[in-house]
Amino acid sequence: MGRLSYQLGIKGEETAKIFLEQKGFEIIDRNFRSQQGEIDIIAKDKEYLVFVEVKSYSFRSFSTPIYAVRKSKRDSIIHAARFYLLKNKLFNTPCRFDVVAIYRKFSGETIIDHIKNAFFIK
Fold it and tell me: Given 14, 64, 82, 108, which is the most exposed site by the fewest CB atoms within 10 A?
């Protein structure tokens, strides 16, 4: 990952954090890592523990942001989420996986797409 891409990701995660807080989410943890994955943001939304993947783009790509979270990425997020739940003894906790995509229109306007229940454990 290049420096500019890394900086874009850091800025995107901070923007997503502020966005979620404004929507009433309580941020629990950020950049949680397990051996096989990372979760950008872990938050509480009412009764749900929410594992959030943040995608930042310089400009809107031609596909929807959900397609950027490929199966291998979903699997690594699920692994990290399971580890987080086990480590914190959060049994029988309702959870979901969200994606927050941040991008700019060509006009310069910043757009934030929040996709709740973006994927599920099968």
Answer: 108
